[in-house]
Amino acid sequence: MINKRILQSDFIARLTILSDKDFIPQAQGFAVSYARFFKFSDSELQKIELIMEEAILNIIQNTFSEEEAGTIDVKIIYQPGKFIISIEDKGIPVDFRMLEKSEQSALGILLMKNLADEFRFINLGKDGKRLELVKYLPEEDIPGMTAPDEQEQKEPEPSVPATDIPVIRLISPDDAEMLSRLVYRAYGYSYVSFYYFPEKIRELLADGLLICAVAINAQNEVVGNLSLYFEHAGAKVADSGAAMVDPRYRGHNLFKSMKNFLRNYGAGIGMYGLYSEAVTIHTFSQQGNISLGARETGIMLAFIEEKWTFKKINNDQLAGQRQACVLYYLKTSPEPQRTVYICEKFFPILKKVYDNLDMRRDVVMADTSVNLPVAETQSLIASVFKPDLNVAMISVSSVGEDALGQIRQQLKEFCLNKVDVIYIEMPVDSLAAAVLSDRLTGLEFILSGVVPEYRDGDYLKMQYLNHVRVDPAKIHIASDLGKELLTEIMKSYV
Fold this sequence. Notes:
494 residues, Heat Shock Protein 90, Aminopeptidase
């Protein structure tokens, strides 16, 4: 067993090897030995072994000359639900797009992508480069849960609405199993996977990456939940999501009560605010956000898969279409004064968004007729694929001259792999990012919105729909500004 303290560290173990083929078996054995701790099957261990061989060989062949004695660092990283192999080097800079076209490298890269659940290539600038290979951890049976048909036979949902008034409080680790049961009662088995695993909920709670406001009824059951997701422990903003209410308690205004509880909690610990995504199959959660003072900041046209359904709610109108979400931001504490740069095409609608947010912002319309200005030679761009939603996210941390080319190549890969929606997020604190956002419209990316104070500043979100059909008549928006946002976004929808 691995000590819990070790799992909470930045990495579990690190191995440094020379850039020589003779050391590939040592790197393979290192990764496989730790993979065994997480109960991967023999076939998955064989895949990890093969991934390591291809990754190390690729680095040796393309990064170091034969006479150069470079080193390669291999780290084993644990994140809830994920076993990550991070491979770093400070050898010759490479263009990953060219490697994929190279006869020597293309097959190995394709093999790694097919064997890994997530594959990331990250340029670290002067710190070299990193290859991240992710395998999803084996999922154990959910304690106390049976198959859907048996569950419904044994525990039919009461048809009579409950009349008691639940108490709102912070979740405790002991509530994790009841939260998993609530997810089933609210969504069946169509929701985000980790909520069905009490042990994973407890782990995220312990790591400070998840906080939940739960509603507890007279029988001490969890009948409502609203979660805060943190990118790292102590982050100043958090994603507010996973709003769910037991069908017996719908109509009790539990969402509003839980959101208000979390707003007060965030203010108490000095957070700047909460952002969230409200579904558009109905306007209930949007109205709840607005009534608490949350403001619309964008719309994600096709964020949720069609298969995600709500128990005891008519889902017929969703037939044949992914669900849209409205982005909201709820301020909890005064934020820093900032200047944001917006390209001319997005400026009119985003200026209205910022005015409505009533934040300390100087909103500047950037001149995008100039060449792409850069502060770095190479861009810092990372990508991640979310299989539970079939969406991908491209995160731009630093804009360099190669930014557009990197994004174009990554977009091509995601499209070929039939990813439904590809999102881009980038800071709006520089002219370079504003120019890049304007250039991305040429790749058929369209506006999604902004997220204030996302990562020590505001971020712009754009979206690319990969042959996904959107009927705006099936998107129900609660506010006038939200409707205006939808109209502006749909103007660019092709």
